[in-house]
Design goal:
By secondary structure, the chain is α+β, with helices and mostly antiparallel strands. The protein has a single domain, classed as Alpha-D-Glucose-1,6-Bisphosphate, Chain A, domain 4, CATH 3.30.530.20. The protein has a 7-stranded antiparallel sheet. Strands 6-7 form a two-stranded antiparallel ribbon. Strand 8 and strand 9 form a beta hairpin. Helix 1 packs across helix 3.
């Protein structure tokens, strides 16, 4: 049962959305569980680490991470989970911070889906929806596809070991 209202996901708008889709050999339930329970182990593309990781995986729950580069530079990321459907979908946004307070530095909303495949794998789709075309292009230039792809590889590796 969803923990929030579940709007239909409209078609992709290439000016506002970046999408990563990949079929992976891990069942949706295991991938979903690892996504929420071991975020610090896969969230940042290596060699970055995630020394700060707060995950309250429920609608209205907080997501707060700090990624750290080898030179000590830190990148904070945070927001709230808007929708959590066990083994199916996670939606989070930086539009809000704890207590549903608006975030003046909004950047994007992420929609992560875990679709079962024949044979037990998952079609994993990560959509990053931005408020402006400029924010979308900035995220793409930051290395969205490479970085999120690497993080997915790390998630799959952790989930594969998380039996």
């Amino acid at each position: 049962m969803p923990t929030s209202i579940s709007p239909a996901v409209p078609a992709t708008d290439p000016d506002l959305e970046l999408v990563l889709t990949r079929d992976v050999p891990v069942p949706p339930a295991r991938l979903f569980h690892t996504w929420g329970s071991r975020l610090a182990d896969w969230w940042a593309p290596r060699p970055l680490t995630t020394p700060v990781c707060e995950v309250d995986l429920r609608a209205g729950g907080v997501l707060r991470t700090v990624m750290r580069a080898p030179d000590g530079t830190e990148f904070a990321c945070g927001g709230l989970f808007l929708e959590v459907v066990t083994n199916e979908r996670i939606v989070f946004s930086d539009a809000f911070v704890g207590g549903w307070r608006p975030n003046p530095g909004i950047f994007f909303t992420a929609i992560i889906t875990f679709d079962p495949l024949p044979g037990g794998g998952t079609r994993y789709t990560a959509r990053a929806r931005h408020w402006t075309p400029e924010a979308c292009r900035r995220h793409e230039a930051m290395g969205f596809h490479q970085g999120w792809g690497q993080c997915l590889d790390q998630l799959v590796a952790v989930a594969s070991d998380d039996v």
